[in-house]
Amino acid sequence: MIATKGLTKAYDGKVAVEALTMDVRPGEIFGLLGPNGAGKTTTVRMLAALIAPTAGEAIIGGYRLGEQDAAIRRIVGIVTEAPGLYERLSARENLEVYARLYGVADVARQVEKYLRLLDLWDRRDEPVGTFSKGMKQKLALARALVHEPKVLLLDEPTSGLDPQMTRVVREFIAELRGQGRTILLCTHNLDEAERLCDRILVLKTRPIALDTPEALHRRLFGRRVVVTLTEVTERILERVRALEFVRDLQHQGRQLYIALADPERENPRLVRALVEAGAAIQFLTEEEHSLEEIYLRLIEEEAAAHPAEAASAR
Amino acid sequence: MSPVLVILQKEWTDLRRHHLLLLSMVVPALVFLVLPFVLTILVPLLDPSGWNDRDFQRMIELLGRTEPELKRLDPLVVLHIYIFRQFVLMLLLVPILGALSIATYSIVGEKQNRTLEPLLATPIATTELLLGKSLAAALPATLLVWLTFGLYVLGIRALSPPDVLPRVANPVGLGLIFLIGPLVAVLSLGLGVIVSSRAKDPRTAQQIGVVLILPIMALFIMQMRGFFLLNVRWVLVGAIALLGLDVIVLKIGARLFERETILTRWA
């Protein structure tokens, strides 16, 4: 649904996004993850045909960026970092303006649909200036959806919201997945990306990694099982080290951290060996890494690979 | 509905609820409407020989050269003609200030409230957006000066001697209001667009845009001192010059009003 190849944007010689290549599948929630200044907003603006790329190409919903920009704008809905609503206009009037600009056939019906869906119908005729930040963000979501876009670009949609409203907005985004819309979610909230995104692209001016959170986890950390024993003896450690499928073994207190290539196949043999060595197993689990750890590892690796850029960014 | 009309309707709904902005347009109009009437009452009262003032005599002399029949009129009538003609010029400040206020608020206000990005993400063409915003500023400003002039005419008819009105609502007066008025409104909004691209708040933009008042004030003072008298030819020359300036200013404004420029280069 969104395909970019070498997409690059520079402002007065300063590169904001470099060589971005990605392919967002229809119906997918695709996370764009990166620190402040990583180029997320610039990417969203390019994909919304708001700014032109310096190099590279992009096709959004079958339309080529730079050649069919008006068509792209028709099929894209955008939630910008600030809600950007007309504060003296009511919620309904705000949506009506956008529905008309997008050429929606039945303006009243669409406006009512989204005001009801986002629980704003009861306050439809009140000036937006009287709304809370969360309500404004919900209205911004309604505005982005009022023309039923195929592609939704969300730039930090929960930024600055309280936890309760953050949850409401996230649940709404998750519901949109079921409607077959393609969503590009720009965030630096790792928890949000982990909860919502099918795949994530870590961006720091240039793309650092693109995959599902699980695959990134495997790529960076491998797969380790954590075995908790009543007591760790030298005999147990020697027996585990002797197993040909064990890639690495570390231990801390009563816990063994064992790196395996294929835990589903190798765990039964590992357990058998441990029991034979006299181990009393209390727990055996697969080690989990949060997206935060994955993200930080990727950013550190990127900084190590490009130390000069990392220093100037600081 | 055409995108231009959508923008126009949105701007006017917003304007109707922006009481401070409305006041900033209506108050100057009221002042320039009422002040000449107050002066026609006060000047003779405060200084019964006020029309013997040197500047006034110079003006009468100048008027007499172009309009000899004025010499035959009562000096009080001439005083009324003199004051009301002067304030027709001042009425031109109404479209200038009005268009400038609306244009700067409409653009800088959107910039401040960060409403431009979602608006620019819609399929609207930037020319349509600029046209919608320009009409939203120029039309009310022009209508306001026409309405004020209408009340001005009614007031003169009701409160001044009958010889006054035909000499105020003459081709020069009508040319100023109905030809120069819309042209200065367009110039003002064009300048408003240009200034708004750099200004961070509407007030700064308005302060910069107020330079447009200076030529009107200069004309007012020159005419008041009897150095210069506007006639039909000058009005037409002024209209042509303003038309040229309008085209230049709108072209610059349109060039600045591009999606990428607005999002990345505007202050």
Q: Can you describe what's shown?
A:
The complex is a heterodimer of chains A (314) and B (267). Chain A has helices at 40-47, 69-75, 91-101, 107-117, 133-145, 163-177, 190-196, 213-221, 234-242, 263-276, 291-305, 307-313; strands at 2-11, 14-24, 29-33, 55-60, 63-64, 76-79, 151-155, 182-187, 199-204, 206-211, 223-229, 246-252, 255-260, 281-286. In chain A, strand 9 (199-204) and strand 10 form a beta hairpin. The mean pLDDT of chain A is 89. Chain A has 12 helices and 14 strands. Chain B has one domain (3-264). Chain B has helices at residues 3-17, 19-46, 54-66, 75-91, 93-113, 116-120, 126-159, 165-168, 171-196, 202-209, 213-224, 232-256, 259-264. The radius of gyration of chain B is 21 Å and the shape is elongated. The chains are: A alpha/beta (314), B mainly alpha (267). Chain A binds chain B through residues 11, 45, 48-52, 70, 73-74, 76, 78, 80, 82-89, 93, 97-98, 100-103, 127, 140, 143-144, and chain B through 1, 3, 6, 9-10, 13-14, 17-18, 113-125, 259-260, 263-264.
Number of helices of chain B: 13
Number of domains of chain B: 1
Indicate the percent of residues in helices of chain B: over 70%
Structural class of chain B: mainly alpha
Based on secondary structure, the structural category of chain A is alpha/beta
Basic shape of chain B: elongated
What string, H for helix and E for strand, traces the elements of chain B in order?
Answer: HHHHHHHHHHHHH
Distance between the termini of chain B: 32 Å
Number of separate strands of chain B: 0
**Model regions low in confidence, pLDDT < 50 over at least 5 residues of chain A:** none
Q: Looking at the chains present, what oligomeric state does this protein adopt?
A: heterodimer
